[in-house]
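RETRY 2/3 - previous attempt timed out on the joint model. Re-submitting the same 838-residue input unchanged.
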Amino acid sequence: MYVTSLPFSRLLGRQVLDASGFALGRLADLAAEVHLTRPRIVGLLLDVDRPRVALIPWSTVRSIDPVVTLEKDRAALQPRPLQPDEIPLREALLDKQVVDIRGLRVVKVNDLFLSSSNGELFLTGVDVGATGLLRRLGAEQPVRWLFGRMGRSLTDHALPWTYVAALGGPVTPLKLSISRERLQAIHPADLAELLEEMDREERVEVMSALSHEDAAEVLEAAEPEVQANIVRSLPADRASDILEEMEADVAADVLGELPQETASELIVRMEPEAGAEVTRLMAYPPNSAGGRMALNFIAIPDTCTAEQTIARLRGLAPDAETIYYLYVTDAAGRLVGVLSLRGLLIADPKTLVAQIMTRDVVGVRADESDEAAVAALMKYDLLAVPVLDADQRLLGIVTVDDLMDLMVERVGGRTPRRLDRIRRVAKE
Amino acid sequence: MRWLRRRWAGLALFLSVAGPGIITASVDNDANGIATYSIAGAHYGYALLWTLPLATIALIVIQEMNARMGAVTGLGLADLIREQFGVRTTAAIMGVLLLANWANTIGDFAGVAGSLEIFHLPRLIGVPIVAVAVGVLVFRGGYRLIERIFLVASALFILYAISAVLAKPQWGTVLRAAVVPSLRLDSGYIVLLIALIGTTIAPWMQFYQQAAVVDKGLTAEDLRLERWDVILGAFVTALVAGSIIIATAATLFPHGIQVQRAEDAARALAPLAGTYASLLFALGLLNAAIFSVAIIPLSSAYAICEAFGWEAGLDRTVAEAPVFYGLFLAVLVTSALVVLWPGLPLVRVMVASQALNGILLPAVLVIMLRLVNDRRLMGRKVNSSGANAVAVATSAILILLTLVLLVKSL
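RETRY 2/3 succeeded.
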């Protein structure tokens, strides 16, 4: 596919002549049909056509070397408007950022590679290296020669089109289904990190390309400032849909970063139940145990048997933060004991949980500081610690994940340098 | 790339509290600025004061335009130029920026040398120590420390305002000089005129402020508040500049003192600080100089990497962002080396760097004007004709002054 690749920048600015040799103008852009693997060039745009609306079909092009020659006379040309599934390459791709989905990087497009096959021209790759920059500056040949003299070669750094998720620029945002599929192949945690490297419009593009569930997962993994920025830039109904899908405690943190007005507007748009949960969490100061707790814990009434508890667990477990601790509550919702998963599994099926649970539970009050919760986790070697109100009612749990986050925050705000760069290598 | 946008945040600590406009304005009063204002007052008295109100208006208009561009597009200036004008224009503008910033860094190193000379520390020792210290602090992640010290210490410049009042200038004369233009055609005057505009509205500020606006996540809805932030920032700059000019014009000009060394300019603080004037001045100048010596090479590296899509950011390792650290070091080290040249006239270098700012500014302004008037980018937030007129007039005046200077030096 790369045998006869032609850099797009070489074509730009070439003179366009009609069949009689009349100069129509210079080549300003090429339009390509959107396609998953091989976008086909459908026509060209002239520099004299400032608003770039009159597409001259590629079928009328006779040759492109050394100038672009058309088969028809200028009177017989039938320019047509750009269709919704066609993109102007220079405007939408050149000098813009794209996601390299294999290398998991955000890169700048320095040039595009076109290849011809069966008399048609296809977009096959993007140049993201220094060669493309030098070519556009007209310095490729001298630098190649210089490198040659030093006994080295100038290597192209090109990505095949199939490894690229394009987002478009501020003027031409691309709402491309192909980008959607490619972005979905990236792990949410990696995508969250890539978001940091994108600008506002690109972030909005990415978040709109994903499903609510995927977008929520990506947003959960993003840095707090990025989270707040994204939620502010998205349309309100989209933002509230995504917030709904997020863990309530993370959603509350994100909303806490926003101006109060914006936050309450978003909460109103959320599903009543999710909105109520978030509002409840936001009432606690961010540095309290209540501000840090998660709501998806497993609570079992003390009247259940071990057998019934296991059945319940099947229903509750998929969403729970941890399944290793089962909290036992009385009829009033007060925490009366805790049961480990191990204790549950080895117990006789007919035993009541009240008989096998540990009654001596370590818990923290919601208004205590989050450090108290973390101290309890560390001192008693727990995976999670329950958060209680003044009446001993179970409100939520603080887990070791929160402990890790807190430690990182205290140490320096961000993940240590070297850890920051660990990214999953994408699957083929 | 855009990940550096967030990292630019490292360049401006008070971002979460103060606005981009006020921060940019504080950084704007660097050692070169102090030197330029001091010379203007000492050599020409109040005769250049009239440029200040005009330059302040231009500053407000241009920085507002810049902030608006950042808020509406969500893109940094370097990125925006690259996306809209392609590689060649970007390379040219980055060349201009690098040249101007290199000159500014040289000027600020001259400020380091000048203030150290007041402490009787020869520049051959002082400048390398500062260069190494700044390099180590930036590489080891101590940049925020410099920034904190600077922003707190930049309040020192208010002392000039007090000193200006204590010098008991004839306020009537000052007021008249501030509104009645007096144009002279000698080269020294014209150079200072260009330098005064160039130090007030510097090319690097455009990249710096727009990045700060984008970093803060401001949108078109925040523009009303942001406008006030820009205006407040411009007034801070004007207050410091005006105070220095008045203080030096009232204390140095009547005695015909020519500012050859930093120490000469220090006497302007004498009405306030008496014998401690030199010490105070040296501390203020050293603080501003060291900070700029860190920030200007850094912001050059950020802007150039942003434009060409190279990895950048102080939280990257050298192996991850070689170009970024390479550019920073190159600007820092070569500037320091230039200042080590024996007998280099420090004060004149500082003023010359600001004149170069003024000469190169039109290139950046023209590009900014094209961007901010592009309806596809800015929608209904394109420039008003008034803003266009002010920006075009500023560029035209600078180009005209440059031409006059060129003709006169032939």
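The longest helix of chain A spans residues 400-412. Closing ticket.
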